[in-house]
Amino acid sequence: MVKSKEGVSICRAFMRCATNPLTPLRAVLLVLASVASSVSASSGDGARHKVRIEGRGPLTVVLEAGLGDTLDIWTSVQPLIAASCTRTIAYTRAGYPGSDPASGPRDAATIVSELRWELKRRGIQPPYVLVGHSLGGLHMQYFARQYPDEIEGLLLVDSTHWNQHLDLGPDASDAFGKGRTVLFLPWIMQRELIDSTSAGKQVNVSPHASGVPTIVLSRTRALHGETPASQALAEKLQEEIAAAFPAARHVRVDDSGHYIQRDRPDVVVAAARELAGCAAMAPKIQR
């Protein structure tokens, strides 16, 4: 079972390696006996997911978590996005606690297909505002580029780049030819990381979603051990993501790490509500 706070720690450890390709990477062993995975075959598009729905409105904000995280990563921001304006749905991908098991490809095409099936099963019709964090942002890029007519807006929260190459194989290398870090992780996380290369290719060859209003949020705090050069590279990747969506604007979020929804929930809430056409939240009165 992958618990959310453990998923955060794992994702942060991996991000320190994935965003520092300019120096040799050491093999990292993460012993996760307490989060050992028990994953078996599922029914493909028919996988049922744990979801949390809050709010009502003419469109739906869909919240997609990153690697190792469940719908709980959105707990603090979901009700604020929904407040007096819009329906929101956060869900946990197949293979994670509370959702059906998963097997086979965990690339963008498969995950988006499963998500669309879940939305259809629950009678949740377009339009959607898609919100994706980290690896979930890569999946939401695919959704928006494949089905732009269904999308009212796209919010990417320190999203993975399509050419970031998060592969785990012993011979895997990133776009810069450096060896990747080997992680001993629950099966579902290993598979999502391995298939992130395929997911990136799927995004890269997808049509451009030129008419989709997009906000790209990126961190400004360096990760632990990150060099100035690798931080500059991470910023460049975020700029490239924004450039791939002609209707996008890129916001570098002050005082934020990779989990912007935790460090600066106000920024994530404001951006999601803007794309959903909601009124800005009234500022809290200090007493």
Protein traits:
7-stranded mixed sheet; 33% helix; 287 residues; alpha/beta
| Overall pLDDT level | 84
Query: Strand order within the widest sheet?
Result: 1-3-2-4-5-6-7
Structural class: alpha/beta
Beta fraction: 5-15%
Provide the succession of SSEs. Answer: HEEHEHEHEHHEHEHH
Number of helices: 9
Compute the separation of the termini in Å: 43 Å
CA-atom Rg in angstroms? 18 Å
Largest sheet: 7 strands, mixed
Unreliable spans: 19-44, 170-182
Number of strands: 7
Helix content estimate: 25-40%
Instruction: Based on Cα principal axes, name the global outline.
Output: globular
Please write out the topology.
Elements: H1 4-18, E1 51-54, E2 60-64, H2 78-82, E3 87-91, H3 108-121, E4 128-133, H4 135-146, E5 151-157, H5 187-194, H6 196-204, E6 214-218, H7 228-243, E7 248-252, H8 260-263, H9 265-275
Parallel strand pairs: 2-3, 2-4, 4-5, 5-6, 6-7
Antiparallel strand pairs: 1-3
Helix pairs in contact: 3-4, 4-6
Give an account of the 3D structure.
The chain is built from nine helices and seven strands, in the order αββαβαβαβααβαβαα. The longest helix is centred in the C-terminal third of the chain and has 16 residues, at 228-243. By secondary structure, it is of the alpha/beta class. The model is unreliable at 19-44 and 170-182 (pLDDT under 50).
